[in-house]
Structures
1.
Amino acid sequence: MPPQSDSSFIGVELSGSKLRAAVVNNDGVVGERREAQLQADGLVGQVARLVGELRETATNVAAVGIAIPGLVNRQTDRVIASRDLPGIVHENLHAELMAATGLRFELENDANAAAYGEFKIGAGRGSRDLFYITIGEGIGGAIIIDGKLWTGASGFAGEVGHITIDTDGSECECGNTGCLETVASAPNIVRRANERLYRDSTSSLSRLAMNKNFTADDMAREAKEGDDFSSMMIERTGKYIGTGVASIINLLNIERIVMGGGVMQAGDLILKPIIQEAKRRAFQPCFEATQIVLAALGADAATIGAAMLARDAAIT
Ligand SMILES: [Zn+2]
C-alpha cells in the first residue's frame, strides 16, 4: 500500500557501537527516539526490538530506512563491505529484517543517507545537485545529481576522504599516502596537534598541552574560547579540506556543498578557511557557482535521511 500523508517512517542509524532509531513523519520531522548499545550478535533482533518499541506509539509506520557504515548495493539490497561491522556483510540482512518486522526496509550507506536527509529537509533544501562531506572519525562523501543519489559504477562515488592532498604525506588505511583523511579526520587532527605540541615549545602555552587526552571537540571548544594554538590547527585543517573542496568544485561544477560531521561543529572557525582555500584554488567561474554551507541536521542527518529514503522508495 503506498504511504498516506499521515504515514510515518522509522530511520535507523547503525554505527560500530550504537543503534539509533527514530520515528520520522512524512515531512521529515523527528518524533519518538530510541537508542541502544550494539551487541556483537543478533543484529536483526536488536533492530526489530527498537522498531517494535517505536511502533507501540507511532501510527501508520509505512517503511524503515537503515543507514549502514559500509557499502550497500541498492539494486540487490545487500551490504557489500563494512569496515566497522564486518559481520553484516554475509548475512541476508535485508530479507531477515523484513521477515522480523513485517515492514519494508531500505538499506543505504550512512554518508549517502545523511546526504539525502540534508538534501530533502536540511542545508541542501532548494538545490538540485549537491555534494555532501562528513568529517568525523573518518571522512565520507556523497553526490546527489538531479535529486538522486549518484553512487557510481560500483557504489563508491564520493570518497572524498581518499583524495590525495599531499603526495609526500603519511600512509592511509586505504593503501594510498597523503589522503585528505590522513590530515583532516578527527583522530588525525588530534595526532597533528600532538606532534606539534611535542615539537614546538611555544605551543605548550596552549591549554591543550595540559590535557593529555584531548579530542577534536576539545580543540574546537578551546579555539572558540580564544586559544591561539587550537585556532591555528583548525584553520590549517580547514585549508586541507578546502584543497579537497576545490577539486570537487572543478570536477563537478556543483551547485551546493554541504559540510557535516563532528569536526564541522567548529562552525565558522573551520568553514571560513575551507571557503578561502577553495576560492584560492578552484577555477573561478566554478567556485562562483557553488555555495559551501554547514550541514543543518547535526547527528540526526543519517537517521532522517534513511527515513526519507524509505518514504520516497515507497512512493516510486
Ligand atoms: Zn586513503
Note: The chain has two domains: 8-117+300-315, 123-296.
2.
Amino acid sequence: MWVSAAFTTRASDGVTRPSPWRDVPDAKWFDWTWQQQNRLTRLHEVETALTLSTDERDAFASTSERFRVSITPYYASLMDPVDPQCPVRQQALPHPSELVVHDFELEDPLAEEAHMPVPGITHRYPDRVLFYVIHHCPVYCRHCTRKRKVSDPTTAAARAQVDEGIAYIARTPSVRDVLLSGGDPLSLSDERLDEILGRLLAIDHVELVRIGTRNPVTLPMRVTDALGDVLRRHRPVYVHTHFNHPAECTPEAARALAVLADAGCVLGNQMVLLRGVNDDAETVRTLNLWLLRHRCRPYYMFQCDMAQGITHFRTPVQTGLDILRALRGWSSGMAVPHFVIDLPGGGGKIELTPDRVLDRDGDWITFQNFQGRPIRFRDVSGRD
Ligand code: SF4
C-alpha cells in the first residue's frame, strides 16, 4: 500500500499546512467558498504547490483544454508534493495516457445520453432515474466517466432544464427513487438544494432521493452544519460518497461524514478501482474499515468504465475478484463492497463474486472457505 511521508506527517488540525497555504488563517481554510475561489486550475498555480515531473507538465499542457483541471487547496494539500505515484495526485493531475484513445473506448460508455427522455434525466432502470442537476465539481477527477460534459460550462443544467426534469419525474409514476448527480450536486447552494429536494419529495410516488457527491473527499468544508440542517429536513436522504484511497481519510473528511450521518443521511461509498491508486486488497481494506468507523458503509467497488482516455486507470477484472477474495472472511461482511461492472451501452450493473464452488457430487457441494480450505455442504434437492 502506498504511504507518503508527506501524508503521514501532514498536520490536518490546522497546525501546519503545506506551502503555499502555510499562512492562510483557519477562518479562510475551513471556508468552502474560499476553497472554491482558490482552486488550482492553471499550470503555474499547481506548480506553486507541487513539483511536477516532465510528463505531468507536458500532460497538463496538452490535456487541460479537453478536460479542465480543478483542484481545491485542501485536496492538493493531501498530495505528495514530489511523487507522481501519489494516489491523490494521480486522480486529479493530467497524465499523458489521457491522450491515447483506444478504438474500444466510448465517449459515453454507459449510454446515459441515449436513455434520456428529457435533457438531464437518464431513465434506464424501471423505478429510478439519474438526475443531472449541475456539471460543476470542486475537483475534476481524471478517471471521470462523464468527461464528455462534466467541467464544460456550455453543458450545465440550466434552471429550465431542472424544471423539465422534475416535471418528467412528476408525470412518470414508475419513478420511486431519484439519484441527484452531475457534476456534484453539493456544488449547488443550500437554498437551491433545499428547493430541489422539497419539490422532488412533494411528488407522491417519489419515495427516496439520493445524492452522489465527492465533496466529502475533495471539499469536506462544504458539508456545513447549515447543509446538515437542509438534509435533515428531507430525511432520509441517501448519500453516495466517492472515497478511493486511505490518503483521503482525514479528520476533515471524518467531520463531513459525521455531519451527514447526524443529519439522518444514510451513507454508502462508491469507490472505483484504479490502477496504481487502490488496486490492492490492503488499500481497499484500510479504506473500508475507516469508512465503517465513520458510519459510511462500503457499497460499490466499481470496475473502471470504458470511457475515452482512462484505460491507463483500468485494472483487469480478475484484480477486483482477487481483492474481494482477500476481504471476505478477513473483515466483517459490512466492509466488503459489491464488485460491479456498469456494462457499456446502458446494459446496467452486474455484480461479480469469486467462484467458491470446487466440486459438486450429487447433493454434496465442496466450497472453498475464506482460508482456502475445502469444506463439504449438503444441499437440499426438494426430495428430502
Ligand atoms: S466528482 Fe464525480 S462527476 Fe465530478 S469529476 Fe469526479 S467523478 Fe466526475
Note: The pocket of iron/sulfur cluster is lined by residues 137, 140-141, 144, 146, 150, 182-184, 214 (CB under 6 Å).
3.
Amino acid sequence: MLQYYEQRRPEYEAIYSKPERQNDLDWLEQQICSFVPGRRVLEIASGTGYWTRRISKTASFVLATDASEQLAAIAVESCPTHNVQSQVMDAFSIPKDLNFDCLIAGFFFSHVLLNQQRQFLNGIAQSMKPGSKLILFDNRFVEGSSTPISRVTEAGDTYQQQRLSDGSCFEVLKNFPRSENLTSLFHQFCRNVSVKESQYFWLASGNLVA
Ligand SMILES: C[S@@+](CC[C@H](N)C(=O)[O-])C[C@H]1O[C@@H](n2cnc3c(N)ncnc32)[C@H](O)[C@@H]1O
C-alpha cells in the first residue's frame, strides 16, 4: 500500500476536486474543524497533508504522521503555519503515553482489514489520554462515482483495482463500513459517540475512555 500511495502522490489530491463531492467536502471540513480548535492533534496517515493544512489553521499543534517517510515530510512542507511537525509512524504501532488530546485519521480506516479494526482502535485507545477526541472519516461507496469493487474475500474485505496515470495498477483494500458497525465499534472505546454520513463520506467521533 505504501508503494501505491507514494507513486500516487503527484495525482492524489485530484480526488478532492471531483465536482459532485464539493458540498460534502465542505460539510466534512466543517465537522472536522469544529473539533480541533486549541487541541494538540496526532494525525495518523496524513498522506499529502490535505487535512493537515485544514486542521492546523486552528489546532494548537499537529503531528502529521505516515508510514511513508516521503509522505510524512510532504504533509509538513505543504502547511503554511508553524504549528506542524512530522514523524514516520505506523498506525498499528502508535507509541504510548503521547501528549495529545485528539487523534484524526482521514481515509485510512477503509484500508484496515475487518478483523484488525478492533485491534486498530485498541492501539489508539492505549496510546491516547482518556477523554481525548477520536475522529475517523472515510468514503462511502457510491455507485457510479466510487471505483468498483473488484474482489470480496471470505472474511468480507473488499478490494479495488486502482490505475495510476503512469499506467501502473494496484489492488487496494478498501472497506466501506456500515454506520451501525462503526457505532458499535466506537462504543467499545469511546463515550459521546457520533456517526454521521453524507452522500459520499462518513465521520465517526467520540471521546476515548480509559
Ligand atoms: C488514503 S491515504 C490518506 C491520506 C490523508 N489522510 C488524506 O485523507 O488525504 C492513506 C495513507 O495511509 C498511509 N499508510 C498506509 N499504511 C499505513 C500504516 N500502516 N500506518 C500509517 N500510514 C499508513 C499511506 O502512506 C497514505 O498516505
Note: The two ends are 32 Å apart (CA to CA).
4.
Amino acid sequence: MTRHFDIIILGGGIAGAAMALALAPAAADHGLNIALIDADNLDPVPIQTDGAVFDPRVCALTEASRNLLNNLGVWSSVEALRVSPYQGMEVWDANGTGRIAFSAAELGIPWLGHIVENSIIRRALLERLAETSVHRLGGVEVRELSMKKGTSFSRPQAQLHLWDQSILTAGLIIAADGASSQARRWAGIPMREWDYPHHAIVTTVELEKPHENTAWQIFLDTGPLAFLPLPSSDDNRHFCSIVWSLVPDKARRAMALDDEQFRQELAVAIEYNFGEIVTVAKRYCYPLRQRHARQYHRNGVVLIGDAAHTIHPLAGQGANLGLLDVACLAENILQACSRGEDFASDRILNRYQRGREGHNLAMAATMEGLQRLFSSDHLVLRWLRNAGLNLTDNIPLIKQEIVDQVIGVRCDPLKLSHSPCL
Ligand SMILES: Cc1cc2nc3c(=O)[nH]c(=O)nc-3n(C[C@H](O)[C@H](O)[C@H](O)COP(=O)(O)OP(=O)(O)OC[C@H]3O[C@@H](n4cnc5c(N)ncnc54)[C@H](O)[C@@H]3O)c2cc1C
C-alpha cells in the first residue's frame, strides 16, 4: 500500500511534535496533507503529576521556547501539568573562588526560565495536535528511505518504507528523528561530530534543604554537575533533577554504586549545598557527543532538532535550539504556502539553513569552549576562569548579555512573540 502526503515529519519528540503543530495552519488554510510519524505512540497519554515521581529527562526552557509554546497554544497546558519557574542561577568552580550568580529580581524579570519534564512538553503538544487536521501515525517504524526519480515536470520524491511493507511518499520529509537520525544518513547528509569526554547521569533527587527556585551548577575536575529545581510536593519535600557529567570511567563507576553510596558521593560533589540527599530515583546514563550536520537539507529531507545538531547539556540548550529550528522552518514553509510558492524548494530550505546554522554553530562552539575551559587543570586557565567568573559577576553589562543569551530573549529575527504564522 502506498500513501502520499505533502509533508511528512519523521519523529514525534519535542522538535517533531512542535513542528507538526506549527505547520497545522498549512493543513487548515492551504489544504496540505501533513503527517507526523513515530515508532512510539503519538496519543497524548495521561501523566500523573500529583506525586513525587518525575520524568528523569527535563529541559531548562528559555523564554524564547516558552514564547513559541505559548504561540502554539500549549504553554497553558504545560503550566497546568507541572512546571518549575526558577528565579536564580548560581555557577561556581569547585577548584577556586570563581562564582557567578544571576537573579530575576535584580534583572527586573519574573523568572530566568522554566524547568519542565520532557514528557510534559510532548504530552501538551500531542494533545493540541489531536485537535488539528495533521495525521498522527504512531507505532510506525521507518525501515528505509529511497528517492523516486523525478520527471521533467516534477521533482524527485522521497519514499519511506515501513516495516509492514507499506510505503509513504512525500514532497518534503522533515527529519526530527533524533541524534542518531537514520533519515539524515539515508539522505546522505554528512556530519561533523566527535565525542565529548563525558557521559551524563540524569535522575531525580530529594533534598534535605530547599533549592530556593535556583538552578545550581558546579564545575568539578571530572565535569559539570547541575541541580535543576523541581516543584516541591504538598508535604514540603524538595526535589531537583540532576545532570552529572563525568568522564566515562567515573560515570560507569557512579552508575554501579548502590543508592546509598551514590547519595553520599552526590552530597559531597555538590558541597552539601542542600544538606543530605534524601532519596535518589532510577539513574540513566547518556554518552555525550557533539554533532552538527554539514548541510541542513538534501534530497527532499530537511533536518531539525537533534537530527541536525547535538551539544553538551551543560547550559541546557539542546531542545531550545531545536524549538528555534521549528520556528524558523515553519515560518519559511508557511510564508511560501501563503505566497503560492514551492515550500520544498532549495530556495526556501536554504533560507531555513541560513536562518539557523550560524546560531546553532555559535552555541556548539560556546559549549565546546566552556567544556574545555572548565576541564583544564592548567594553572593559568584555572586562574583565568576563576577571575573571569568573579569579574563577570561584577559587570552588569556583560551579565545582562549572558542572561539575554541564556534566557533566550535574543531571537528577534524569528519574531517568535508576534510571528504572524504561529
Ligand atoms: C542529559 C541531557 C540533558 C539535557 N538537558 C537539556 C536542557 O536542560 N535543556 C534543553 O533545551 N535541552 C536539553 N537536552 C537536549 C534535549 O533533551 C534534546 O535536544 C531533545 O530532547 C531532542 O528532541 P528531538 O525531538 O530533536 O529528538 P528526540 O527526542 O530524540 O525524538 C526523536 C523521535 O524520533 C523517533 N524515531 C527515531 N527514529 C525513527 C524511525 N526510524 N521511525 C520512526 N520514528 C523514529 C523516536 O521514537 C523519537 O520519538 C539534554 C540532553 C541530555 C542528553
Note: The first strand starts at residue 2 and ends at 10.
